[in-house]
Amino acid sequence: MIYLDYQATTPLAPEAREAMLRWLDGPGGTGFGNPHSPHAMGRQARAAVELAREQVAELFPPGGTVIFTSGATESLNTVLQGSAGDVLTFASEHAAVLDCAAAVEKQGRKFGILPVEHGGRADLSALRRAAANGTGIIAAMLVNNEIGTINPLDKIGTIARECGALVLCDAVQAFGRIALSPDADFIAVSAHKIHGPKGIGALWIRDGLKLEPLLFGGGQEGDLRSGTLSPALCAGFGAAAKLAGERMAQDAKHIGALWRHARALFPDWTLNGSENDRWQGNLNLHRSALDVSRLMSEVRGVCFSAGSACASGSGRPSHVLRAIGLDDRAAKSSIRLGFGRYTTLDEIEEAAQIINAAAAAQEL
């Protein structure tokens, strides 16, 4: 099986798995303590959590606090629902942002969705026109999860500061791969996108900023996020973050080579999203009149996507592809190939041969 769906999730790094094992001990072990308990086992678990927090924090800009959450969806919801002022975001954002509109509007706040350019980058002219003194949050991805386009967070940050707004950055696809923008005030990430475990993520909050809690209970995580933390998940996240930081340049070089090779192997396909302003581990392509559902059913040996894993099976065309100008037919004729640290050139070649053959057979 060839795995080419790195935007959906990434393989667990052996180093992350190893870091988790001690904290999964059963009876007779010493690693199952509650990190919020005051006894020795609790303190040991707490130490593991705080070490992981330090390791994760190394990949964020200085001057902020890392709060552990269940993942980026919770992190994004916490900021959008726990902040003040109106919200502006873009049509290509993840559903974890766009689907917060109703909750934000129930609070009596406005939720505006702005267009993007043809390549998928935020329309800065539209943002300048819409941003006003009442704008509290501008939410923008750093790297788009469907087409890989990189947003100009520095310019978005400048516009935000001019109107007194704060910037919420969905950095799920950027974390551990490229440097994060110092122009953001809140940054949401998930561990399983950087070869860590599922079920844990983080919210980075610039020092001095406050939010209303989304979850209430024991007041863990600085009174912002209640709930017992899993030392095993934290340790795995920390180890994955540490490894990502150490390998960032090496991984980027490898992925760049995969990208160049893959681009040459799909000559009859059209690229979706920007050619240059993108993370190269994401290759989103469309081919005229292609039946993607049939393609995916026939190509059993390659794991790839027709869009966001969160929206798979809905039958609706990708909102991201529609936002960049594709009609429904072209959007439904698109596939997303995602590759990364553990992908090989041989796998890319084999997958391309299988996918191209299946696509060509539809034209006979």
Summarize the structure.
With 364 residues, the chain is α/β, with parallel strands linked by helices. It is 37% helix and 15% strand. The model has no long low-confidence stretch (mean pLDDT 95).
What can you tell me about this protein's structure?
This protein has 364 residues and is of the alpha/beta class. It has 2 domains: 2-8 and 244-361, Alpha-Beta Complex (Aspartate Aminotransferase, domain 1); 14-242, Type I PLP-dependent aspartate aminotransferase-like (Major domain) (Aspartate Aminotransferase, domain 2), CATH 3.40.640.10. The protein contains 12 helices and 12 strands. A 7-stranded mixed sheet has the order 2-8-7-6-5-3-4, sandwiched between helices. A 3-stranded antiparallel sheet has the order 9-10-12, with helices on one face. The chain has a two-stranded parallel ribbon with strand order 1-11. Helix 7 links the parallel strand 5 (135-141) and strand 6. Helix 1 (14-21) packs antiparallel against helix 8, helix 2 (40-57) runs parallel beside helix 8 (231-265) and helix 8 (231-265) packs across helix 12. The protein is globular and about 70 Å long. The two termini are 27 Å apart. The relative contact order is 0.17. The model has no long low-confidence stretch (mean pLDDT 95).
What layout of secondary structure does this protein have?
Blueprint: E1 2-3, H1 14-21, H2 40-57, E2 64-69, H3 72-82, E3 86-90, H4 95-98, H5 101-106, E4 111-114, H6 124-130, E5 135-141, H7 153-163, E6 166-170, E7 186-190, E8 201-206, H8 231-265, E9 270-271, E10 282-286, H9 292-298, E11 302-303, H10 319-323, H11 328-331, E12 334-338, H12 345-361
Parallel strand pairs: 1-11, 3-4, 3-5, 5-6, 6-7
Antiparallel strand pairs: 2-8, 7-8, 9-10, 10-12
